[in-house]
């Protein structure tokens, strides 16, 4: 693939020494950079021909620090956590920030917007396309090799593809709640989500349909145990019908998602999960797989099979969580423990 | 409630002695009746005021035999199984028929169409309304007391309500895969199904939406293990998108359902599951509860709690089935065993 980086590099934004914001748990003076940009390049899509595509990125931390690429679910994006320069909330505040497991004082933390998240590609996407696009971004940014790729949910799928296709550019893969293939039952759930979106034809209807599809997605991310604890209340009357206890929560989740995500972006990213397939035997990069017993979308058995079939060093860490597939967004301490463990291994080698 | 039976009783349809159809496993000459009719009566709905309602019924077997009321899921109806008079396939051919666990030579087997299944009631329905409607039907048919009520899925919910509200008219309740209350996570699933239907406004769109909602319902009835065994194949291209392996199966299920079920009927019966609540302490009728370990819609723990809280004699039978909530439609031998066991108890008392 040919590479045409057009991203504008932003300058360093150091904290004034001795006057860090009081909310920072660690008060050593720190130089934290934050930069955003975008890369345009030509990418041969597996199922959609060669296209000019754009990937937007954000980076926090010193440019010469070891780089960790951090990838989340399909609704995640380049903005991992707030910084002085970009103070809005990010999608992984539990892990990314000063004093957290992914500390921008010591690491360069890179996030991207998914290929297709802007709704500009209405063709089948594949997780391999995402992995190849990331390789282009790394080229554009002059990053030869990642200290680690930490991917959760969709990010784990893309991480596995990256490890299989561009393993020489990666020292360690941490794949959380994502397997080498979609489970057939989970694919069926997603196919219904896409069928919901296809019910609608015009713009406003499509937005409403995406919201309802997201409600179903949210159910696949969570566990009955959590809902039993949170929503154990009788249905309440609303006009000529009744609403169940979880209904306003689900509606809120769906509406928030559909305000940010187009129908095309949703359909194509959802579809790409069902096109995902990686042969674990093609992954030689040291890999830590994290699975959650209560995850109904990515059964732990599939992650056991993945970890056991890796060509390189592999291990499986399993957690219990009421939050099922969404544990990576909720179980901050457990996830931080795994991240810290992964990054500490061979630290001397990195520093050398 | 006042009662206005208008159903026309059909006459007996005896088989010619000595010439039973060759497919019957038991060749003793048998007199099997089959009759259909409908009852109109005035029914005070819990949430919808007093209305003139209609219940259609079908009965197989001698009118003077012990009567067993047989109730299935929301898509079930009065036609349990084919008979000489009504030869089309019924919804429970695995259990109902000559030589089967529910044998119309020895029992009068009664089935009904659910209140609201005709789409004529666009108001909140409750399983208590269904139970009261059944009491009216029994009055109309001159049936003082049921030998048993065998209810599966929605039929189990209605059976529990009937046992709580009209216990004196029932000797034994067999409740398969239905609990005293909906699980909050299952209610959330159903709320999304109803949200899908509400996306559509006009007739054809509503039919399509019901079909997609049914696809989601089917997923809640089945298990990941079954799908892993049946649909473990890559997605295939269909025009500009890919379809997962289960997609045509789900579409078929949805389309078949939406051809027979109106949006209003679906919404109101689905909603009635979420309004369902029975205090197990109000059930004094001997009750056998059947649960399936793999049922994701009605967790076995809820059935354990139900069985343990009954005011009368109660017991729990648990099965393993790849078919989850739909086990009652698939595990013919295991279900037949439980039915036979329940009906054999106190047989002499019944015969006396």
Automatic annotation (TrEMBL), chains A, B:
<dbReference type="GO" id="GO:0009092">
    <property type="term" value="P:homoserine metabolic process"/>
</dbReference>
<dbReference type="InterPro" id="IPR008220">
    <property type="entry name" value="HAT_MetX-like"/>
</dbReference>
<dbReference type="InterPro" id="IPR029058">
    <property type="entry name" value="AB_hydrolase_fold"/>
</dbReference>
<dbReference type="GO" id="GO:0009086">
    <property type="term" value="P:methionine biosynthetic process"/>
</dbReference>
<feature type="active site" description="Nucleophile">
    <location>
        <position position="153"/>
    </location>
</feature>
<dbReference type="InterPro" id="IPR000073">
    <property type="entry name" value="AB_hydrolase_1"/>
</dbReference>
<keyword id="KW-0808">Transferase</keyword>
<feature type="domain" description="AB hydrolase-1">
    <location>
        <begin position="68"/>
        <end position="331"/>
    </location>
</feature>
<dbReference type="GO" id="GO:0004414">
    <property type="term" value="F:homoserine O-acetyltransferase activity"/>
</dbReference>
<dbReference type="Pfam" id="PF00561">
    <property type="entry name" value="Abhydrolase_1"/>
</dbReference>
<feature type="active site">
    <location>
        <position position="325"/>
    </location>
</feature>
<feature type="active site">
    <location>
        <position position="295"/>
    </location>
</feature>
<protein>
    <submittedName>
        <fullName>Homoserine O-acetyltransferase</fullName>
    </submittedName>
</protein>
């Amino acid at each position: 693939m040919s590479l045409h980086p057009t991203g504008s590099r932003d300058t360093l934004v150091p904290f004034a020494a001795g006057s860090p914001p009081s909310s920072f748990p660690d008060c050593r003076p720190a130089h934290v950079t934050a930069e955003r940009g975008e890369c345009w390049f030509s990418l041969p899509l597996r199922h959609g021909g060669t296209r000019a595509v754009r990937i937007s990125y954000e980076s926090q931390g010193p440019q010469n620090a070891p780089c960790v690429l951090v990838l989340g679910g399909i609704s995640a994006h380049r903005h991992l956590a707030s910084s002085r320069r970009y103070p809005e909330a990010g999608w992984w505040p539990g892990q990314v920030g000063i004093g957290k497991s992914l500390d921008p004082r010591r690491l360069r933390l890179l996030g991207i917007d998914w290929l297709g998240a802007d709704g500009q590609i209405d063709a089948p996407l594949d997780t391999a396309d995402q992995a190849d696009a990331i390789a282009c971004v790394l080229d554009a940014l002059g990053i030869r090799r990642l200290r680690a790729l930490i991917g959760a949910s969709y990010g784990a799928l893309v991480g596995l593809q990256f490890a299989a296709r561009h393993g020489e550019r990666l020292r360690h893969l941490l794949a959380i709640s994502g397997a080498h293939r979609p489970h057939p039952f989970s694919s069926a759930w997603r196919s219904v989500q896409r069928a919901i979106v296809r019910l609608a034809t015009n713009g406003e209807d499509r937005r409403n349909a995406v919201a309802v599809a997201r409600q179903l997605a949210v159910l696949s991310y969570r566990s009955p145990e959590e809902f039993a604890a949170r929503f154990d209340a009788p249905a309440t009357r609303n006009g000529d019908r009744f609403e169940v206890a979880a209904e306003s929560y689900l509606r809120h989740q769906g509406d928030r998602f559909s305000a940010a995500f187009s129908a095309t972006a949703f359909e194509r990213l959802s579809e790409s999960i069902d096109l995902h397939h990686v042969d674990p035997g093609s992954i030689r990069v040291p890999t830590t797989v994290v699975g959650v017993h209560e995850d109904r979308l990515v059964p732990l058995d599939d992650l056991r099979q993945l970890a056991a079939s890796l060509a390189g060093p592999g291990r499986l860490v399993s957690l219990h969580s009421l939050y099922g597939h969404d544990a990576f967004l909720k179980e901050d301490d457990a996830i931080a423990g795994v991240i810290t463990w992964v990054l500490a291994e061979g630290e001397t080698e990195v520093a050398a």
